[in-house]
Amino acid sequence: MRYLQKIVTTISFGTAIAMTMLQIPAIASTLVRKNVIDLTPQEKSDFVNAVKTLKTIPGTNNKNVSLYDEFAAIHNGAMTFDPMQLGGLVMLPQDTPSTGPATGADAAHEHGGFLPWHREYLSRFERALQSVNPNVTLPYWDWADPRSVDVIFDPNFLGTNGSGSTLIIEYPDGRPTIRLDGGPVVSGNFSEADGWTLIPDLNRNIGTAETLGTSLTRYLPDPNAPAGFGFPLDQAETDRIVQSPDYNTLRRFVEGEITINADGTQTECLNIPCNHNLVHGLVGGSAPNPNPNETERQILTFGTMSNTPASPNDPVFWLLHTNVDRLWAEWQNNGRQGSEFYAVPGTEPYGHNLNDRMWPWDGGDSIPGSIGSTDIRPYLPVVSPDDIVRPIDTLDWRSYGYTYDTLVKPVPETSSTFGLLGLGALGAASLLRRKRSYPEQTHLNSVGK
Ligand SMILES: [Cu+2]
Fold first, then answer.
1. Domains of the chain, each with CATH number or no CATH
2. Distance, CA 71 to ligand 1 centroid (Å)?
3. Cα–Cα distance, 139 to 141 (Å, whole number)
């Protein structure tokens, strides 16, 4: 639908017709986003090479900035619309306030548009990768799979933990001391020695607005960390995300504002985040502030991934968010794809309702401000005034030309699903055939493993 809309828009502009027509074949061939643990060595090196190449291509606006940095700038810019940046207790002094209807709420997080905004953002990044190598698709990090961490944080794939810094956070009220080991990634892929140099203005601590410098910084948890303080995340909890009864619950659950317990009760995730927010915090290093007061935030954040504006500087960002998008697609694939399975109309701040324009694809309606004293606007890409995207345009992931391996894989014949249904061998075989013919419409095992 979004492409149809674009055709109608561009016809009146004449010259853009040819470009629009070129997009059509991409829709016809659906690319499959895979679990990162299933990538072949070739697929892994293709992904890494495409990501690194984007860091060497000049940006569309400021030629001193790479295409990759422009993506990082967009994520920074989205958060400047929230004067309480990331819900911290303190309003960072914002030298240049944002303007326009999006002002007042984070344009990409904490509200209904979290899922649509990131779906659009990921797809644009994936298309940028495909302009380097058409075989590349975004892999996802199934955070509940114990095999994922070793595959991802390999020096030859997305690089290792940081080193050289130990943080000890002590709690005067008797809570256990937290120890975090990490720091800059100093060798292997995505280290500065490897050429992965960050723009300090786009790599800031959300709580202090101080820059984290030019290195990717990680504080990965101890591999033996107890459940809830390390990887993997809980499989049963992740399965419950896809069972969420409505969009608002799903969005809050997967983003990490709440969790739903096994007995169906809800718990707010305050000082210790959940799901997507937890993964950000575990990679970048975060801890409850021992002494939050009127001038400090409730959660301390240390590295690149835990400081949300900066987080796309870590390439693992894309794998985490692709998993979030997958969980949304699986939820939608279970009969919830229509616009009635979105946030209740009128309940969201501007930019997050079904037909609102989402910055930066808003025709220039809103202008981001600064993060502290940092004006990120010189780093932003050019966005055409007719490049408009609303949440409603993002609901059908297939219209972007991709799907997920979990939505096209046939359910294994040994699956308990067949046992539960009590099907005989013949029935199971015919169901399997139907699934192969219409994989996305007869999907039974929504969290396929
Ligand atoms: Cu995120």
1. 2-408 (1.10.1280.10)
2. 13
3. 7
